[in-house]
Amino acid sequence: MNKQIVSFVLLLLFSCNLVYGEDPYITYEWKVTYGTLSPLGVPQQVILINGEFPGPKINCTSNNNIVVNVVNELDEPFLITWKGIQQRKNSWQDGTLGTNCPIPPGKNFTYRFQVKDQIGSYYYHPTTALHRAVGGYGPLTIHSRALIPVPFNPPADDFTVLVSDWYTKTHKTLKGLLDTGRSLGRPEGIVINGKSGKGDGKDAPMFTLVKGKTYRFRFCNVGMKDTINVRFQGHTMKLVEMEGSHTVQNMYEMLDIHLGQCLSVLINADQNPKDYYLVATSRFTKESHFATATLRYVNGVGGAAPLEKKEAPEGWEWSLNQFNSFRWNLTASSARPNPQGSYHYGQINITRTIRLVSTDGVVNGKQRYAINGVSHTDPETPIKLAQYYGVADKVFKYGLCKDEYMPPNGNEVITIAPNVVNVTYRNFVEIIFENHENSVQSWQLDGFNFFAVAIAPGRWKPEMRQNYNLLDAVSRSTIQVYPNSWAAIVTTLDNAGVWNLRSNALEKQYLGHQLYLSVNAPNTSLKDEYNMPDNELLCGIIKGLPRPKPYSI
């Protein structure tokens, strides 16, 4: 009898799709609108959240419950994803077009999710159309709980730095270029927190420092095309965190931040009190852009020194060496009190290898990008909803993307279709990214963190595993792949749901460089995955259908 009562209580708690308990709730009310700003000095239309660009900061603590009511006042459907937030058992809140219907103009949708067992530096951004090209993004910071030690002293202040390449065209103009088979072309500049200083001493200070204090700067590359290198004039950086993992605290004069990546550094305000520049420079381009932001010491005298010619070496070998210097701090705690190194990922047997080869080609006169010969397109009915309503066979096919792929020597036949890969719940998988292009790629996996165990030039072969870092690779959710090179990641697929794996390059992502992993538990149960929320937006062929029977324990 007691077991029946306990089961009934648990069922009531789970069926509401909210995470109950002692963890506090943080609620936001967001209004998404258009506005006119001049990030590069030219007035243009941007997307604002509550009148702000970048959008409001979500500032929370591990295990907090986040409630965000998004009101779409644009003239187009709109959707937001929470990049790097794992959404445990809850892909309903991931905010991609494979999991959610977009919010229609004039309507709202309330996201409800828990930042379960995560800390670190993240951000949110739109996933509809090319909205990300003109804003709608903002920072999301998760702090450690008070009882869990952090491997450095509390800083005097905690700053967010969102760096991005930038176009002055509207998002509709940019989308029109891609829809008619043309390219976005080169970005026209770089912005730092929505502004683009020129290093001429005329800009108001963005950050204020007190001599003798230490400050944390959280960087994210929220851009569309370019790797961005960052440095501080006169100050070195101590790397302390990367996408939710504490790192070995190495010192750097400059850091490459690839598309979609976030990291934290500490700097000591130990220089003569005056102004200094934070400098962001595009990488791996024929013509680089730069932007500056001003750091001002309190009671400082004098402006920043003229910018010296100081860039990272050309080519990507230097950047690869920097990647190899990043190490997981094995003795530090992350969101839980146990040390990060207590999880011995290198001792787990790989159960499946998925080798993803990126290619491109022209289909019906228009440029497309493909993974293993499949160029993804979003169906009218989101993949997750099609599964839940039992109509998946009418929306997409599993298995178009094979685990192994050998691109043809001649013209590739590209299939344009929803790209869905069926994977086994709790399997430990190895995913290989092969970049056959001449530009740097960056990839994002929703729903999981993975261990980035290797990057190397050439083509991957099984014997390459002997060079994997199986001890202290950083646990993260993005990975870069250099031109004509490969990267390897390993992860446990322990989060049931439908999860997007995508290029962080907006043009390539929009034109097919993405897929969805369908991670299905053997038995549909609330122990493994939450039910569809009561407020879920419906679209496509499921609109008007009776709601399926909810999961039980």
In terms of topology, how is this protein built?
Layout: H1 2-15, E1 25-37, E2 44-49, E3 58-61, E4 65-72, E5 80-83, E6 108-114, E7 120-126, E8 138-143, E9 157-166, H2 171-179, E10 189-192, E11 207-209, E12 214-221, E13 228-232, E14 237-242, E15 245-246, E16 251-252, E17 254-257, E18 262-268, E19 275-282, E20 290-297, H3 317-325, E21 352-363, E22 366-371, E23 374-375, H4 383-388, E24 415-416, E25 420-424, E26 428-435, E27 441-445, E28 450-457, E29 475-476, E30 478-481, E31 485-492, E32 497-503, H5 506-510, E33 514-520
Parallel strand pairs: 1-4, 3-8, 9-12, 11-20, 21-26, 23-24, 25-33
Antiparallel strand pairs: 1-2, 4-6, 5-7, 7-8, 9-10, 12-18, 13-17, 13-19, 14-15, 14-16, 14-18, 19-20, 21-22, 26-31, 27-30, 27-32, 28-29, 28-31, 32-33
Report the sheet with the most strands, covering strand number, pairing sense and barrel closure.
7 strands, mixed
Poorly predicted residue ranges: 1-20
Specify the number of helices.
Answer: 5
> Span from first to last CA?
17 Å
The shape, in one word, is: globular
**Radius of gyration of CA atoms, rounded to a whole number:** 23 Å
Helix content: under 10%
Per DSSP E runs of 2 or more residues, the count of β-strands stands at: 33
Whole-number average pLDDT?
A: 94
Computed structural class: mainly beta
Taken as a percent bin, the fraction of beta residues is: 35-45%
Signal peptide: 1-21
Domain Plastocyanin-like: 32-145, 158-298, 383-522
Keywords: Glycoprotein, Signal
Protein name: L-ascorbate oxidase homolog
